Amino acid sequence: MFASICRRRLLRFRQIPSAAGTDLSRRPNPIDALLSHGYSSSALAGIPLSKPPCPATVSYLVSCGLSPAAAAASKLRIRSTDKADAVRALLRSYGFTDADIAEMVRRTPVLLILDPDRILRPKLDLFASLGVSPRRLSTTPHLILCSLDNHLVPCIQFLRGVLGTESHIRDAISRAPRGLLASLEKNMRPTVATLRRLGLPDQSISKLIAVEMCVFMFSPDRISQIFEDLKSFDLSVTGTGFANGFRVLCRLNRENWLRKLALYRSFGVSEGDLLKAFKKHPTMVLLSEEIITKKLHFYLDELKLELSDVMGQPVIMGYSLEKSIIPRCAVLSVLMREGKIEPNIKLITALLGSTKKFSDKYVLRFAHNVPDVVKAYEDCMFAIILASKACCDFPKCSALMPGYPSCMARRAAMSSGIQTETKKEEECKH
């Protein structure tokens, strides 16, 4: 209001003609520059927009776990370290670790100057009563800046009506705490109304929001587009796979989604196989294009798997080549060489399953009779840990491809290299 009054007075002043009859409103007025918003970046380049960092504040932020660069870049000025200490002590009392607090301060340093008892404690009590862990809350500390009465409580009451139980509310917030930042009137209510308009039953809406509360961040048009894309894959809104498919497409923009589908088609995947694969394992489209290409080339060109088999078990696209598939291939190679399993084994079936299941069936089962099977598995895993990449070239490490002993050679070379480097370090110390 004060600014508005000033503007009106200045405008009235500009319209008063001079004694000579000259219209002052036509002459340049230096005050115009202060009232306009059309500043150029070049004009502002030399103007200091903020005060230099306060050394005491920078030092305190570094003590909180921030890097010196991040601390210096912060615009925060801590006038009372006692209050900041009280904030950190309060957060620790609610189960936040020093790492959690450092992350929260990095994202929202203003937390350190808030009143710990009047502002922070009631909000922390609310999230604690819901069962939201400090670790999850630390990933979205802006929630603690939201108004308790005007935002958090009304939103949670709304979620209670949609999700039904406290455990569902807890799980929804824990999976996607950022979703709770959405406005109740501008986002949450319109989203639920859109989902109902598109034919999603209330029970399905509850399940969807429970697993992907970030849907509140999408516009009604985007939600409608996702519905159309899922329907084109013959996914019924009442089907069990619809919520999973919706959750996946929430993480992709439409351009990326279409590009991933085109990439699978470029390998010869038919529309029917692509449809079935997506229904079974929709996260197959969340992989980067580079990873999709790398894995399909490996499965088809190196392991000689049939494309229909890979698409029939699309979960294999989610397995790490380096940490899972290649070590398993090394084990199967040894067992084939020793005649413990048939060469015509259904390879894709053997490669699937949990690490424990594979280890029990193919490693521990033959450990006494075929010691090399344990060594094959350990060598590949050892190389992965040391090199943080594939234990060896794909053709060498795969059991269906001879040359697996190169894993052991590589392990020996790595061990030798480590010893050499350690020796050099010791020599440098002396």
Automatic annotation (TrEMBL):
Listed GO biological process terms: DNA-templated transcription termination
Gene3D superfamilies: Transcription termination factor 3, mitochondrial (1.25.70.10)
Coiled-coil zones: none
Keywords of this entry: Transcription, Transcription regulation, Transcription termination, Transit peptide
Pfam families: mTERF
Family named by the database record: Belongs to the mTERF family.
Protein's UniProt name: Uncharacterized protein
Taxon lineage: Eukaryota, Viridiplantae, Streptophyta, Embryophyta, Tracheophyta
